[in-house]
Design brief:
323 residues, 13 helices, alpha/beta, eight-stranded mixed sheet, globular, two-stranded antiparallel ribbon
Length: 323
């Protein structure tokens, strides 16, 4: 493939461009800000996210959607809050046979639509979803990484795998798009739950018991929305859940720790609080709508949304953990 587009010059979009650039002639990296695009083109460095990483020479930063014309594959690496507006703009610019790839692990609230469902609104259901235990800061350094791809159109998934695969970046294709996407949302709730417990100094026996419960409940929730429970055992499920629940690099884990320590978080200044709350409220609604019990979702909802003191919420979690 000659030309690939990536929308979003943030941490993940830039990291993916570094990988894709190894396999195609040109990568067009779409930035919202002209100044950042100019800096990337003149220095081959994204100074805002990776000041110490030299980007591949065939990465071209742009602010013009017209540059995406002719791109066979377009990655959408924007926050879930900006996804709908991006799709609305994009539909006027791309080729009809372009393959869209969502990398956002989020859900629109209150519609309860995953990013893939939003793509279907504006385009069709042949999109590809990418998800796994993947920190962008490691991808951009070309460190060993593995992830899942899912699509209702397997041929599209194969094409995306070809432009992403390197000796260090491995990909496994699965068929369960809905399960893959919902795993990427549920893992954030588990990460917050484990962060709250760490912030409260809950003992490790209990914390890893809670992590196990979260994994069990992930399977139940995946099934409740029509996905395959075994998807929770994939890299996009178990791998991502453990990574984000235990690593200090995880923003959702850190958010949970702050709440566990009863530190007041400025919601307006923190996009992660906004994203986290949306995920919690959305998954809570999905559980309610499908009559699916989840003590982990209830725990995080109680602390983050209802503002119940963590110690009280934890007692309720522990009293019901075997239910």
């Amino acid at each position: 493939m000659d030309k690939v587009g990536i929308i979003g010059a943030g941490s993940l979009g830039t990291a993916l461009s570094q990988i894709v650039a190894q396999n195609v002639e040109e990568v067009f990296l779409l930035s919202r800000r002209k100044e950042l695009a100019e800096t990337i083109n003149s220095t081959h460095i994204n100074s805002e996210y990776y000041p110490n990483v030299k980007l591949e020479e065939n990465i071209i930063a742009t602010t013009d959607y017209n540059d995406l014309k002719g791109c066979g594959i377009i990655f959408l690496s924007v926050p879930s809050s900006a996804f709908r507006s991006t799709l609305s703009t994009l539909k006027d610019y791309i080729d009809s046979d372009a393959i869209l790839v969502t990398t956002a692990k989020g859900i629109e609230y209150p519609s309860l639509k995953t990013m893939g469902k939003l793509i279907e609104e504006y385009f069709d259901e042949d999109y590809v979803a990418l998800s796994g235990p993947n920190f962008a800061s490691e991808i951009v350094l070309n460190l060993e990484t593995i992830s899942n791809l899912a699509s209702r159109n397997r041929e599209n998934a194969v094409k995306v795998k070809e432009v992403l695969s390197t000796p260090k970046f491995k990909l496994k294709i699965i068929d369960d798009v809905d399960g893959l996407e919902i795993c990427g949302i549920i893992k954030n709730i588990n990460a917050i739950a484990n962060g709250i417990c760490e912030g409260m100094n809950i003992n490790e026996n209990a914390r890893y018991g809670i992590l196990t419960k979260g994994f069990e409940e992930t399977k139940k929730i995946v099934e409740s929305i029509g996905g395959d429970a075994s998807t929770a055992e994939e890299y996009c499920g178990f791998g991502d859940l453990v990574l984000t629940s235990t690593s200090s690099e995880s923003r959702n884990h850190t958010l949970g720790m702050l709440y566990g320590q009863r530190i007041i978080v400025d919601e307006k200044a923190s996009g992660i609080v906004f994203e986290g709350k949306n995920s919690i409220m959305a998954i809570k609604d999905i559980c309610r709508n499908t009559n699916t019990e989840s003590v982990i979702v209830d725990f995080v909802y109680d602390v983050i949304v209802k503002q119940i003191p963590p110690k009280i919420a934890f007692k309720s979690l522990w009293d019901n953990i075997l239910n």
